[in-house]
Amino acid sequence: MANVMQIKIITPEKVFFEGEADFMEFNTADGEVGIYPMHVPMTVILDPGVLRIYNGDDKKEAALHSGFAEILPDKITILAEAVEWPWEIDKNRAEKEKIRAERAMSADGDVDGKAELSLKSAILRIRMADKK
User: Fold this and answer.
1) Across residues 24-36, what is the average pLDDT?
2) I want to staple 82 with a disulfide (CB 3.0 to 4.6 A). Which of 42, 65, 109, 127 is the partner?
3) Half-sphere exposure of 74 toward its Cβ, with a 13 Å CA cutoff?
4) pTM of the full predicted structure?
């Protein structure tokens, strides 16, 4: 039984992260999941949330926005709209994004859910920026 899995996180602009992990956590459309090596294969839709990558005593955290993840027993591939390390986040910009999303939700009822997703992403960015 393998005790690590290969992780590859890809955004439209770059390969965000490539390495090994013995445990990983992230948000899906159905809630937060924790993945160990030898997990049952599955594909999930990602929701905005904190991505945590554990490898021994090393823990990395990033703001993961939306996307998809393919989970295999020895490998996880994430195709993300955006992923940011805490030090990459501009908190002032995130706070303005939050205000815009709240206004959009109250103005048009957010029928298609875009403003709600923007609000979740803004709140996530603000929370992660505080971890710098």
Assistant:
1) 95
2) 65
3) 2
4) 0.86
